[in-house]
Design a protein that fits this description.
Layout lengths: L8 E3 H8 L3 H10 L6 E3 L2 E5 H10 L6
Length: 64
Amino acid sequence: MLKKENDNYIGIDEAALYLGVKVVTLRNWIKLKDTLPAHKIGKMWKFKKSELDKWVKSGNSAIQ
């Protein structure tokens, strides 16, 4: 049986590190890119790595 990768939510700092951008850049993308898979939980932004991977692979991350 294959081990399923843990796909818990990560915070904005870890998501920025995962994408290789600064936190301020990720916050700007949240405002400007309606396709970015970001989830607001309370006052915090949360992300799933699998959704970020799909977003990058889809090409939507390159849309200005």
